[in-house]
Amino acid sequence: MQCSISSRAGQVLAKGNLLIQKEENGELRLSFQTNGGKLIQGGIIAPDGDLTEASEVLFREFYETWRMSNITLTAIA
């Protein structure tokens, strides 16, 4: 899924894709790969498919990457 990451001021920080990656132990991880090739790993997806914790970890990693809070991820059609 092509997405855009924006600051609270509306500045586009990156464009890329949300990914679901399979770990060696079989767990699924939510990640984001920028069009520039940077991979930002989020959390493990819950066995029932709930993305809450996985996305919280991903947004913490967005903060670590860009040092900004209130980042918005938007799907691009």
Account of the 3D structure:
The protein is built from one helix and five strands; from the N terminus they run E-E-E-E-H-E. It has one helix spanning 52-66; strands spanning 2-6, 12-22, 28-34, 39-44, 72-75. The protein has a five-stranded antiparallel sheet with strand order 4-3-2-1-5, with helices on one face. The longest helix is centred in the last third of the chain and has 15 residues, at 52-66. It starts with a strand and ends with a strand.
Could you outline the blueprint of secondary structure elements for this entry?
Layout: E1 2-6, E2 12-22, E3 28-34, E4 39-44, H1 52-66, E5 72-75
Antiparallel strand pairs: 1-2, 1-5, 2-3, 3-4
Q: Gist?
A:
This protein is an alpha+beta fold. The chain is built from one helix and five strands; from the N terminus they run ββββαβ.
- The share of residues in extended strands comes to 35-45%
| Unreliable residue runs | none
Radius of gyration: 12 Å
Overall helicity? 10-25%
